[in-house]
From TrEMBL, chains A, B:
It comes from Aequoribacter fuscus. GO terms for cellular component: cytosol. It is found in: Cytoplasm. It holds the Pfam family Iso_dh. The lineage of its organism: Bacteria, Pseudomonadati, Pseudomonadota, Gammaproteobacteria, Cellvibrionales. The gene is leuB. This is 3-isopropylmalate dehydrogenase.
Amino acid sequence: MTHRVLVLPGDGIGPEVMAETVAVIELVNQKLGIEMSLEHALLGGAAIDAEGVPYPESTAQKAHQADAIILGAVGGPKWDGLDRAIRPEKGLLGIRSDLQLFGNLRPAILYPQLAGASSLKPDLVAGLDLLIVRELTGGIYFGQPRGFDTTDDGQRRGYNTYVYTESEIRRVTVLAFDLARKRGSRVCSVDKANVLEATMLWREVVNEVAKDYPDVELSHMYVDNAAMQLIRAPKQFDVMVTGNMFGDILSDAAAMLTGSIGMLPSASLDQAGRGMYEPCHGSAPDIAGQGIANPLATILSAAMMYRYSLNEPQAADAIERAVGVVLDQGYRTGDIAAAGEASVSTSTMGAAVRAAL
Amino acid sequence: MTHRVLVLPGDGIGPEVMAETVAVIELVNQKLGIEMSLEHALLGGAAIDAEGVPYPESTAQKAHQADAIILGAVGGPKWDGLDRAIRPEKGLLGIRSDLQLFGNLRPAILYPQLAGASSLKPDLVAGLDLLIVRELTGGIYFGQPRGFDTTDDGQRRGYNTYVYTESEIRRVTVLAFDLARKRGSRVCSVDKANVLEATMLWREVVNEVAKDYPDVELSHMYVDNAAMQLIRAPKQFDVMVTGNMFGDILSDAAAMLTGSIGMLPSASLDQAGRGMYEPCHGSAPDIAGQGIANPLATILSAAMMYRYSLNEPQAADAIERAVGVVLDQGYRTGDIAAAGEASVSTSTMGAAVRAAL
Ligand SMILES: CC(C)[C@H](C(=O)O)[C@@H](O)C(=O)O
Ligand SMILES: CC(C)[C@H](C(=O)O)[C@@H](O)C(=O)O
């Protein structure tokens, strides 16, 4: 069976890190005898430039046909002046929603070789391995009604709707519990159930789902406390599950705990396990085109793709092992180099990973 | 002129830390010849127990007559089983809204004597002094409509409304800029204007207000990035201003950066500068009644009260100086004692502050 993979290089450093990643994918396929067709399409600013919209119909068609999608990053100041409706972020939100990629997996793993990069004291983060499961196609990001109006006394007003149905909550919670079973068997659900009705329902449904997982330990935490606990003692967590908005905030905080966001991949899955894979970092327009970006987060996103959507775990293992090897060998791009340490280019890092394969 | 101050001991450790604080207030008044009438009332769980509601009419009346309110903390597992409408948190939200205490000041200050308590590396937090100004009476906490309903296909659904008008945004932004002028003259406004309409208006209005403050430097940051930056390099911030929900999360994160949340006071101000003052920490039911809670955050809240609502800056200075002295002298309650260090009781700490006055 031939896997159909869609490549979306995106904007900024996206095309640079994607070139290295595609080369890694091709080598892995060749070594392991994996059949794959790779198609390319545009998303975000690149799509706006070429076709006037951030998520063109041609990209949507290819996306629906693919078994998995690998994405670089979208956005940049170049498109800041545009009307909101056609900005690069809309392309990202559009494809997530169109493909119903409701389950966003954001691991925060501390690589022992990079332990010094964390802003936290070493003993608090040594061995950190937590997984945030963020609901990605609902909540306040997509809730209706939303927009602007005018109050009776003539003031401008802006509004959004934070809304969850039980099925939206259930499917992402089931995903989190299933993943926890393969890890530390602990789930912490994050809400603000002491204030927000939408998250009271969240807590209720999570408790219902938990009944089917007596072997998994469930706890609940308010979002303000969760933000504190991530800073105080991040290793207390195994899997955290939360809504779209809280997940956006907490997963970035968790990523930063490692100090090396240039290393962190992510997956966004639909009900059938098809998914989109992308680095946690953004398009970094300030360093785009210089050939110095870290390709490892995107390369590790490809590993997640093999594992979660293509059912080729040996390819995932091979890539992750190779990344470990290059870190051991001392290869560092600028973002993960310690003060005074020499740094290598994007293409050198990519070549090192391929050599380690 | 006699200042009218209302004391709300609240629940859990609230009454214990408040007893020490009232004793400090009385001593300061006596030493500096400040005239003050102190009234007491119930809020939260204590009010539920006595009168069946978390914010009784009698408390509201006294609150409206007061120049300032000092609060311990509310809530505890004892009231968890109650109907949402009469839980302790409702008392807190009720009094904030009733008195229109829209401007919540949450300083995160690292005391040099307690530098070791932070989970961040020392050089990242040494000298940390940031102020979060959180909008406290609007946004998703109070937006209508809110509640539960059923979808067409029979599913439960929970929803809230995130809404801001321009006047709500303007008054808290003006407060933040005014405060920034007395500090480092920098304001960072936090929003999610790449996704949420309510926060697009937020950014627009902040930009309008900024025109009146050419001497204050303004920046904007998305909330996910702000959570990262607080962990990566918290000293980059002077004043941060944000909405109710983001402020809840970020101010707790910022407080935790110091490692000593038992030290941090807060103020909640109305348009006329009347305010409610309370520690950042909660009611800590696990240690309530043991006489070991740290009273310093509440004592420092009294200092903020003298400064912001009573216009008695010399009293505020005296209290803050006294707290510095007891820390220098080595007094530590359990929460701020280093491993192996001896710790003192709530009353010993209170007495030490009074002795230092
Ligand atoms: C770019 C933005 C719309 C997006 C989000 O908020 O989801 C990003 O922050 C992310 O987390 O992937
Ligand atoms: C208790 C709760 C309602 C409250 C809030 O969310 O505002 C608390 O977390 C706070 O920050 O004062």
